[in-house]
Amino acid sequence: AAQFRFTFPESDAAYLLLDAFHKGSQVKVLPAARTITGYCRNHNGGVPDNFHNYFVAVFDTPFEEVATWTDGKVQAGQAEAQGEHVGAAVRFKTAKGQRVHAKVASSFISPEQAQLNLAREVGGDSFDLTCRKAKDAWNQQLGRCDVSGGTPDQYRNFYTALYRTMLFPRRFFEIDAGGKIVHYSPYNGKVLPGYLFTDNGFWDTFRAVFPFFTLMHRELDGQIMEGLANTFKESGWLPEWASPGHRDCMIGSNSAVIIADAYLKGIRGYDIATLYQAILKNSENAGPLRSVGRFGVEHYNKLGYIPCDVDVNENVARTLEYCYADFAIWRLATALGRPQEEIDRFRARARNYRNVFDAETRFMRGKKKDGNWATPFVPEKWGGDFTEGCAWHYTWSVFHDPQGLVELMGGPRAFTDKLDAVFTTPPKYDCSYYGFPIHEIVEMTVMDMGQYAHGNQPIQHMVYLYNYAGQPWKAQKWVREVMEKLYAPTPDGLCGDEDNGQTSAWYVFSAMGFYPVCPGAGEYVLGAPLFRKVALRLENGKTFEIEAPENSRENLYIQSASLDGKPYSKTYLRHDAIQAGGTLRFQMGPQPNPKWGAAPADAPYSMALDQRP
Ligand code: CA
Q1: Cα(612) to centroid of ligand 1, in Å?
Q2: Is residue 613 scored above 60 in pLDDT?
Q3: H/E segment holding residue 330
Q4: Residue 329 and residue 350: Cα distance in Å, rounded?
Q5: 456 C-alpha vs ligand 1 centroid, how far in Å?
Q6: Residue 368 CA to ligand 1 centre (angstroms)
Q7: Cα of 345 from ligand 1 centre, angstroms
Q8: For residue 608, what pLDDT is reported?
Q9: HSE on the CB side for 7, CA within 13 Å?
Q10: Tens digits of residue pLDDT in 2-34
Q11: How far is Cα of residue 315 from the mean position of the Cα atoms in its chain?
């Protein structure tokens, strides 16, 4: 529900038009009740045949005159219309500056439920009271991450990013007359009990948005998990891109990552047995859409990679994302005490990234079904074997085993040289797969940081990988540079698509001083905090503080650190340590301290090194 306020001049012809949109709509004007009801059916797929968005709008000012229109034709005096594209017009008689208020609500369930939603969410509140309640609610949520010791622009950046991180997924459930949680299923068209959330592309949000929820919004994350179980019960599949039903968009098995990360971080209160069955089905089968289940699964399971010559597009990207999901499933299967054979199967598959790594070029690369590399190979070619990126970006998509990637590259030196080369290689590109430079390509060239394309998701964790090869100070340098150069509190302040909060969640984490490189590993990788102090007020009542008293534009390098007063040289933070509350304190300075955090034992989790989770 919401409230609208319209301010008119002195007029006998103060009109308000309500457009119920095309693709099927209805309006009913009830002058005695100063109310307009109806529905919109406008959508672009991903809904059952009975999809309706019912609405009600209640005004505080009487209507002097009523009209409707159907498909562009006005029916004066007629209070109802139904058709392909209908709308309503009401006329008010207003004094100078008179305010007309409308209380509005919608429902995907029924017109009656829309009335209930209006009563529950707005009720008798004045416009100003609704404003105040909304402001208080946001302030309370935003205030849970309390930053200080920065500039006004840094605060604007941070809280704007935090706000955006919390906008998606949308709540698709409603509360019925008996106070029960119910939802209209965008999968089977029924009204069913329990939670449901929608509008989310997991390809984007598994990276940092959902890890942020596991840290700061654990109860909500549990509700989202129940919603995922409901999606499986109602559609037979887990969503990868819900909007509101399954949509054929992007790639990967990232629902498994989101579920595993939530469960492994101790979030409970949902049906994990059903979710695990859903993960198993998703991981072993192609789905009804290419984005659901695993498109190309028969090749992946047989060869350990998806070849580039079997009519499965974006095959290298799919291989890498399935492989990382298999890591997450391995961890989850272990925690659930699944049969050893099953655990081992996923563990073995989590090493499949090696099958698409070409040691000669030191890039992830398209491979044919006969085992030969695809030729010619152009590392700057976007699309084709990759998804909205090129080999420069996807070569780093080994979230769970950067140390294994270090070995494949030929050691830490070769690995960090390659990371450096991302920034020093000019932002040239081959866009022949798309036929034109897609906006992500344009954004990379505009940003002018070499091949580093922060405006799109595949590379967003890359700068943190310096921690895995003994050069954490370079992560500190680049994190700060990206925060300062690519985020600004201006209308064009973001460097690319926001993508359901992911690009903002990167900033939120990075400004706090750490980032979830590998959801499922139970760790966050350190960068360099932006503020002198951050206090995280956790749902469990504890507070975790990150302090960097000398922090400034120049003092961007970590000199040393302590956790709860004890020296700390790890370049990662355990999730459990944050949840327990405490203080991580950094001493910052203008020059790198190449010794701090550089020992192999200080590096974050990597599958090749140990079993830390
Ligand atoms: Ca994107």
Answers
A1: 31
A2: no
A3: helix 315-335
A4: 9
A5: 4
A6: 28
A7: 32
A8: 86
A9: 3
A10: 999 999 999 999 999 999 999 999 999 999 999
A11: 23
